[in-house]
Amino acid sequence: MFYREAGQFKPTYQADSQIFPIRQDRIGIMLLLAIAFLAVPLVATPYMFSAILIPFLIFSLAALGLNILTGYAGQLSLGTAAFMAVGAFAAYNFMLRIPGIPVLLAFVLGGLCAALVGVAFGLPSLRIRGFYLAAATLATQFFVVWCLTKIQWFTNYSSSGVITAQKITILGYNFDTPGSKYVLTLAIVCVMALMLRNMVRTNVGRSWMAVRDMDVAAEVIGFRLMRTKLLAFAVSSFYCGVAGALYAYAYLGTVEPEAYSLDLSFRILFMIIIGGVGSIIGAFFGAAFIVLLPILLNIIAHALQLPTSVASNLELMVFGALIIFFLIVEPHGLARLWQIAKEKLRLWPFPH
Amino acid sequence: MKLIKSILIGAALTGTVSVAAAQEQFIPILSYRVGPYAAGGSGFFGGSIDYMNLVNANGGINGVKLKWEECETEYNASRGVECYERLKSNSGGASLVEPLATGIAYGILDRVATDKIPMTTLGYGRSDAANGKVFPYVFPLITSYWNQAAAMVAYLGSKEGGVDKLKGKKIVHLYHDSAFGKEPLPVLEAQSQQYGFELIKIPVAHPGNEQQSQWLQIRQAKPDYVILWGWGVMNAVAIKTAQRNGFPREKMLGVWWAGSEEDTIPAGDAAKGYTTMTFNTPGNYPVLDEIRKKVYDAGKGNLDDKARVGSVYHMRGVTAGILWVEAIRKAQEKYGKGKVMTGEQVRWGFENLNIDEARQKQLGAAGMFPPVKTSCEDHEGSGAVKVQQWSGTKWVPITPNWVVGDKALTRKLLEESSNKYATEKNIKAACMNG
Known about the structure:
The complex is a heterodimer of chains A (352) and B (434). With 352 residues, chain A is an all-alpha fold. Chain A is built from 14 helices and four strands. Chain A has a two-stranded antiparallel sheet. In chain A, strands 2-3 form a two-stranded antiparallel sheet. The model of chain A has no long low-confidence stretch (mean pLDDT 89). Chain B has helices at residues 2-16, 38-57, 77-87, 102-115, 145-160, 179-182, 185-195, 212-221, 233-244, 261-264, 286-296, 312-335, 343-351, 357-362, 407-425; strands at residues 24-31, 65-72, 119-120, 138-139, 170-176, 198-204, 225-229, 252-254, 275-278, 354-355, 372-373, 386-390, 395-397. Chain B is built from 15 helices and 13 strands. Chain B is α/β, with parallel strands linked by helices and 434 residues long. At the A-B interface, helix 3, helix 6, strand 4, helix 12 and helix 13 of A face helix 1, strand 2, helix 3, helix 4 and helix 6 of B.
């Protein structure tokens, strides 16, 4: 009932191929964006901006990046954090070495550097796949972090190998409050999510999905495997690189290479597994689950006045149990649950 | 979106409902009690909380009780920032913060200056933050990695009968390949030039549970000493691998994060004779007895195992507690006794600490840590360390006096590094007064 499409006719091809074909979806997204851009900056506290919303958005973007590679193109990767590191350190160096470079351009260039690294380390994907490829991308993870700690030029010869992100100034406006950083991050994430949403509907996205579903068949029907796979690596790394730059600039401020450890790669992989592989909204769900749920559990444990040593362990146990529960109930992730809920609403109150 | 919304609403509620400020001095505790570093976190933060409980049991600081709230960081920078942001304005505002994690410290380095909350970093990076002109809100109290590295060279020199005897010797720096392990390199390199010993740098990849190739390299190099700059599981593995390769443990000198019971007991008898640096003198002190009596016997102890009272990490936590409380006490002397101090006022207290031997004795901690006297130029306040040796069952101090390395050298490096930071960040280096 809430979701009935009856009466929504599409007289033109344009109308039929828009991003959100159902009116309820369009209104919902508009409302959500309005809330995120207008209402949240007015009501949220600095704590919510800098500790919850900004990391949530950044991890969502990184999860989107990995989702391109793993979810849409079917190439398993454990190098996400490394691509983020490349993005962050490249953006830092562009800002440092080219005085007066616009920040957004530095982010884009950082993303492009990550894309280049992605392509280089994506080359093995032409010969190997599945878990073997995952193991091969581990090399990215170790190589990049090793490189950043070893070659001091990347960290501008700081003795402990830690970079300090420069100030974000765009057109004379200083993004130095948590609220302004949030709006900037949100804008970037929204634009990139929309771009991706469009990309996966074009022939590029379809070629990725064809390769994911069966690469031999895709090749037979005329997709060029090398190009498709490397493009997936490039676009995915670009997204991760921008996420990494945001992680350094909009979130932490000072970053050591260790912050982009294998652990972070795993966390992002869990995000897309739990959120839903091959779905855009799934990346957001997954980031919310992995980033926000432990914080929520921690707050609840506090509210219950549990002894801290018990609370800390309990938090991990509940979190682990929830992961298992969700994956048993819905192996395709939270995005699939969301989809099922929408289908149910379409028929409500008269299910078959 | 429901899930996100409910989480956000939940977070908003708990975030905004902060209790009306009472006459209590609030300290956020960014602790970690799970994960690979739980042994260090529970010991250190347990010690600080035990000491704060003791202060409260004795009536607080001139009547002002301490209040604290704990938040689990899992030693993760991202979670640490979240905890800091969550707790910083609770209960009338945080008076100080100590994350005991390099990653978190870097994550909140800029924030503490904006929020005007002093941050102590007892015995870890960044070493150049001792320059209070550039880092007014950061206090690497007691001693930094650089002064420790300098003290290591001084100690090894004294073992040889003078630092000039180090000429031609070989010293291996076996380190955790991270910011932490690389921190002392500028000092060690400068000193190897100065005294003419050969410095062999051998990195160990995180977490360090496989060191066969490194120790093979060490066996081939036949060094006179091995400096073990490790953390967590890496330490016990290094000690055991050294035994297997027949390298005498007496010639191994660990960093102070490689010198706790949690590092040596798992290594078993291989650890006997192993030496490390420390900024606490192992032993028993009246303040520990008081904690046992007034805190643990009252059932308020923070550690589950009472036997850990007085262990290396616990004592380090107690030391941190003492420094915090003394800073607040000092601030009260200037801004009004019996009042709750703001972060800015506590910062002044940290910058004007003077805990000499007489004061330590009053606190029941004579000789437990080196005397600390801070100023704007020197947020570290001491730079002195000791060397301790594992007897097989407990740590024993083997340098009767505090060891101080070449402080002129570390000062020079510190000025260079902190001024570079100041130019990068457009900070005008100046002392804060009042």
